[in-house]
Design goal:
The protein has eight helices and eight strands. The protein is α/β, with parallel strands linked by helices. Helix 2 (50-59) runs parallel beside helix 3 and helix 6 packs parallel to helix 8. Helices cover 37% and strands 18% of the residues. The chain binds D-xylitol-5-phosphate and zinc ion. Residues 9, 34, 36, 68, 177, 197 line the site of zinc ion.
Length: 227
């Protein structure tokens, strides 16, 4: 049974107090910090770059930083994100002409490589890279913004990936991102996801610590049902 982990996405944090918000989410039980990088080209929004990762790394030295690059030509910036302190770096299949090369580039900079697929991309597009990735990130919204509604078709894709992993005896982890909240988290766990990214549900309303606790409770409750 894979370890279920909550991965708070700082996209919905208060950027004026990013370190404090991020620490609160980790102290409450979040285990990996999800960092959404948007360039205004691959997605219609702009967020942050390597200097912010570097500052977060100084403030929270031991955290795992899961950098989700929603950018064109990611090869140009992978070295800078690695240097800034990224732990995992994921790139979109749709953004990479030479996906195999890009994933090896990430690994060559000492980071764990991940691959991401948009809602309209089938899991079959990843057949040739599943052996070299640390994680596969299934987008359950169209990337670009926090607080969007969960696209239920992603559940079928998570199930398919879990099956492929079993049949082929592979080790990649399955991550889900977008619209993960109290009303959807049990379904994604039952489908086979284990790294559960949540932005709005953690940082949007109420106390960060309470939100993390409730989400983890709901996720772990679903694990029992799955077992
Ligand atoms: C969307 C980002 C997500 C985002 C998810 O483009 O990749 O990581 O923060 O936000 P919620 O959990 O609010 O849907
Ligand atoms: Zn993301």
């Amino acid at each position: 049974m894979p370890k279920i982990e909550l991965v708070p996405s700082i996209l919905s944090a208060n950027f004026a107090q990013l370190g404090t918000d991020a620490k609160a989410a980790l102290d409450a039980g979040g285990s990996v910090l999800h960092v959404d990088v948007m360039d205004g080209h691959f997605v219609p929004n702009i967020t942050l770059g390597p200097p912010v990762v570097q500052s977060l790394r100084k403030t929270i030295p031991d955290a795992i930083f899961d950098c989700h690059l929603m950018i064109e030509r990611p090869d140009d910036l992978i070295p800078a994100f690695a240097e800034a302190g990224a732990t995992w770096i994921s790139v979109h299949q749709e953004a990479c002409v030479h996906l195999d090369r890009t994933l090896h580039l990430i690994a060559s900079h000492g980071c764990e490589p991940g691959v991401v697929i948009n809602p309209a991309t089938p899991v079959e597009m990843l057949d040739e890279v599943l052996e070299i990735v640390h994680h596969v990130l299934v987008m359950s919204v169209n990337p670009g913004f926090g607080g969007q509604e969960f696209i239920r078709g992603s559940l079928r894709k998570i199930e398919a990936l879990a099956k492929i992993r079993e049949v082929r005896g592979l080790n990649f982890r399955i991550e889900v991102d977008g619209g993960v909240a109290l009303n959807t988290i049990a379904d994604v766990v039952r489908a086979g996801a284990e790294l559960l990214v949540a932005g709005n549900a953690v940082f949007g309303n109420g106390k960060i610590a309470d939100n993390v606790t409730k989400l983890l409770q709901a996720a772990k409750g679903a694990t029992v049902a799955r077992a």
